[in-house]
TrEMBL record:
This is DUF2871 domain-containing protein. Pfam families: DUF2871. Keywords: Membrane, Transmembrane, Transmembrane helix. The chain crosses the membrane at residues 7-25, 37-58, 70-91, 103-128. InterPro entries: Cyt_c_oxase-like_su1_sf, DUF2871.
Length: 141
């Protein structure tokens, strides 16, 4: 459970720093248009910090970290977050700096979204295994 809490904490720190980065980069470049950089902050806080705080609560109730698939979920989901948010930050920064971004950035961001989806599927499979086990243990007691 400590690993889940630490993960949420790291996403909180990076999320807050990304908001600061967005504000300072756009201010330094007198940028007033739309950029993906503006939503990196929100993605990190919602899909990172808040999501892992929910996973922490689920772990407390259902002991999902006791399942083998939980480790797969944890690493696949986090890899998806790193790739997705990294590409959003890169694309957004290039937009602010007035540089073109290629199709490769969108393609890699798509791979990040696929990893996030696979991670979510693994989480639901893990939950599906633990909820019946928890209900059965409660009936037996």
């Amino acid at each position: 459970m400590r690993k889940i809490l630490n993960t949420a904490h790291v996403y909180m720190i990076i999320g807050v720093l990304s908001g600061l980065f967005y504000r300072e980069l756009t201010k330094a470049n007198d940028f007033t248009g739309d950029t993906q950089l503006s939503v990196v902050h929100t993605h990190l806080l919602a899909l990172g910090m808040l999501f892992f705080l929910i996973v922490l609560a689920l772990d407390k109730v259902f002991d999902i970290s006791g399942e083998k698939l939980f480790t797969w979920f944890y690493w696949v989901y986090n890899a998806g977050m790193v790739v997705t948010v990294g590409m959003m930050a890169l694309h957004g920064s290039l937009t602010v700096l007035g540089k073109a971004s290629g199709a490769a950035i969108s393609g890699i961001a798509g791979l990040g979204h696929i990893l996030l989806t696979v991670g979510l599927v693994l989480l639901f499979i893990t939950l599906g295994k633990r909820i019946p086990a928890k209900a059965k243990a409660k009936q037996d007691a």
